[in-house]
Specification:
By secondary structure, this protein is an alpha+beta fold. The protein has one domain (30-176): Thiol Ester Dehydrase, Chain A (Roll). 28% of the residues lie in helices and 25% in strands. It has six helices and six strands, in the order H-E-E-H-H-E-E-E-E-H-H-H. A six-stranded antiparallel beta sheet has the order 1-2-4-5-6-3, with helices on one face. A hairpin with a 2-residue loop joins strand 4 and strand 5. The longest helix is centred in the N-terminal third of the chain and has 14 residues, at 5-18. The radius of gyration is 17 Å and the shape is globular. The protein starts with a helix and ends with a helix. The structure holds ligand 3VV. Residues 23, 49-50, 55, 103-104, 107, 116, 118-121, 147-149, 172, 174, 176, 178, 181-182, 190, 193-194, 199, 203 line the site of ligand 3VV. One of its GO terms (biological process) is fatty acid metabolic process. It catalyses: hexadecanoyl-CoA + H2O = hexadecanoate + CoA + H(+); dodecanoyl-CoA + H2O = dodecanoate + CoA + H(+); (5Z,8Z,11Z,14Z)-eicosatetraenoyl-CoA + H2O = (5Z,8Z,11Z,14Z)-eicosatetraenoate + CoA + H(+); decanoyl-CoA + H2O = decanoate + CoA + H(+). Belongs to the THEM4/THEM5 thioesterase family. It is found in: Cell projection, Ruffle membrane; Cytoplasm; Membrane.
């Protein structure tokens, strides 16, 4: 089938109105997210939560090297440039890589709440093919919080921050204690992380600012 921008626009509209699965609908008891008073100011870079993270780690040579910047409220932006290593079809980004970029961007939001949380559910709409060399302009926000459950949404646009939507996602993150990582992570990396003073400082920030 020939590439047709009109039908793509229709799909963007339908993705925006079709809604997500019931598991991603906040319950009636959900409340508005509250930006933590110690969250980075709008415009500030958030920094990596772990230097070897595939999404944001500076010391991860195979990673996406996403850098998120705090926005107003509980929102942020990030940019991701699709490199040849990210291909699925020739010259096009792999969908799993795009989902990773969305997952990382959504995960970074939890810094603004000062909560440690992991992805429970991630639903992704792939709306336009994304060629290698494209810079995706990602924008994400937390829409609701219910107990440990954090509901958030993200879009990735092409040709600038107000360009056409290429991917979008809705997610449910679940807040976890630090023990989630200590108990489940491979011993080798956990020990190294515990010995790293920078990692200890980042982790402590969450523990002393509940
Ligand atoms: C010094 C060393 C320490 C280092 C510290 C490092 C700090 C790092 C800081 C930040 C790291 C952030 C990393 C970001 C990376 C990007 C984001 C990712 O890719 S994260 C990886 C992918 N995700 C997972 O690996 C989760 C695997 N899943 C689990 O571990 C569990 O299933 C978990 C925690 C999600 C839930 O398990 P439960 O036993 O704690 O809690 P339950 O009771 O099952 O769920 C709580 C509520 O959430 C709902 N829920 C859970 N999963 C759901 C799902 N899939 N769909 C819908 N609802 C779900 C449940 O229905 C329940 O709701 P009701 O309270 O009853 O209303």
């Amino acid at each position: 089938m020939a590439w047709c921008p009109d039908s793509l626009d229709a799909r963007v509209r339908s993705a925006a109105v079709s809604g997500s699965s019931a598991a991603l609908q906040p319950p009636a008891s959900a409340r508005k997210p509250e930006r933590h008073p110690d969250a980075p100011a709008p415009g500030e870079l958030l920094g990596a939560h772990y230097e070897h993270c595939f999404g944001c780690g500076h010391e991860q040579p195979h990673g996406l090297h996403l850098e998120a910047r705090a926005g107003e409220g509980v929102s942020l932006t990030a940019e991701f440039t699709v490199r040849p290593a990210h291909q699925g079809a020739p010259g096009l980004a792999h969908g799993g890589v795009l989902a990773t970029a969305l997952d990382e961007t959504l995960g970074s939001l939890n810094w603004l709440l000062r909560k440690i949380a992991v992805t429970g559910r991630l639903e992704t709409d792939f709306v336009r093919p994304v060629p290698v060399g494209t810079t995706l302009h990602l924008a994400a926000e937390v829409v609701a919080v219910a107990g440990r459950k954090i509901y958030s949404t993200a879009t990735g646009r092409m040709d600038g921050p107000t360009g056409p939507v290429a991917v979008r996602a809705e997610a449910l993150f679940v807040e976890v204690p630090v023990e989630h990582f200590v108990d489940n992570g491979r011993e080798e990396e956990i020990q190294a992380a515990m010995k790293d003073p920078d990692q200890a400082r980042r982790t402590r920030a969450f523990e002393v600012n509940p």
